Amino acid sequence: MLSQAKYRTSGEQNFCDDVPISINTTGYFYDQESAAQLIRHVRWNGGLYCPRCRSLAIKKINSFFVNEIFQCNACQYNFNCTSGTLFHGSKLRLDTHLALAVAIDSLIGHVRINEIGRLLGVSPRTAKLQLAKLGTVPPAHRYLHGSDQALADIGNYGTILELFEAKSFSIQISAFQLRLANWLGVGKAHDASARGALLSIA
Ligand SMILES: [Zn+2]
Predict the structure, then answer these.
(1) Cα Rg for the chain, rounded, in angstroms?
(2) What is this structure's pTM?
(3) Does the residue 180 lie in any domain?
(4) Alpha carbon 124 to chain centroid distance?
(5) Counting CB atoms within 10 angstroms of each CB, which of 76, 93, 127, 163 has the fewest?
(6) Domain count, the chain
(7) Residue 27 included in any domain
């Protein structure tokens, strides 16, 4: 039975971007297009650039929304929004990737990685691989809020989305985007904003 109980914010300030996780508020975990859109927004906010040679001379060579492919005019490299990131080359859907990363960030320490894999519908091997890629550095800001009871009841849920919805977990969108930027390598060698916001899409 779905509960409309208020979600807990653990005494932290209740920011206006702290919203319950649901398909209506955060499609990132339910829908590949939303996930891809968010990744593109966070990664290329400062302008689209080639992940291999940093050129800003880029053209789009297909218009599939989820897997939009670009080509660099300078080095001819074909790339999409996950190229060169820890999400690169995976067969997992992008929305599953985001949910898995959030679950690992938030639930590891409470439950075993195999249980997190089960909730996401991925193999223990995939979950462990993702854990290794994400590393064990905790997020700078706790962006997922939920009750201790929800964590205690994990074994009763079939999927991570069921858990999020039933216990009215909430997510602070701005802090989550910062965490995503960290996963995508934005702000390291990949910082495009310093190169201006030139955008060259044919
Ligand atoms: Zn290039």
Answers:
(1) 18
(2) 0.80
(3) yes
(4) 20
(5) 76
(6) 1
(7) yes
